[in-house]
Structures are given as C-alpha cells and as structure tokens.
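User: Sequence for Acetone carboxylase below. Tokens please.
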Amino acid sequence: MSTPDVVTGELVCSAKGCRAEAAWGLLWNNPKLHTPARRKVWLACDDHREHLETFLGARDFWRSTVPVAELERTDGA
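Assistant: Structure tokens for Acetone carboxylase:
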C-alpha cells in the first residue's frame, strides 16, 4: 500500500507564484529515484490542480489526487 509523505506547514498551492489555499494533494513519485510505494505530495488549489496533474502526468510521475483533508499533517515542530 502506498502512503503519502506527511504534509508540514501551511497548506499552500505548489504552483509557482501561487499563494492560494490548497484543496488537493497530488500524490506522485519519480520511479528513477523513489521506491514504488513512496508518494511525494504537491499541494494544489482548484485553479492549478489540472495543470499540476498534467505536468506530473507528462513525466509519468502522477499517481493520484486526494482532498487535503485525507493527507497526514504535522505542524513541523
């Protein structure tokens, strides 16, 4: 079973220059660097979700998208 990395800090969209609150967690991995079960997380607002999924998908990195409420979080302390 794949487990996403823990999300720390503010839930802000990962798109360059965007400071909007994230609504989605895009789960991905680079098979050349990560084990098959590893899931890195990018955060996305509604406006950038499709763009970021397309970017990751073009590189065969995108695995799935989940609501941020489903991600494991920590305050980073």
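The chain has one domain: 7-71.
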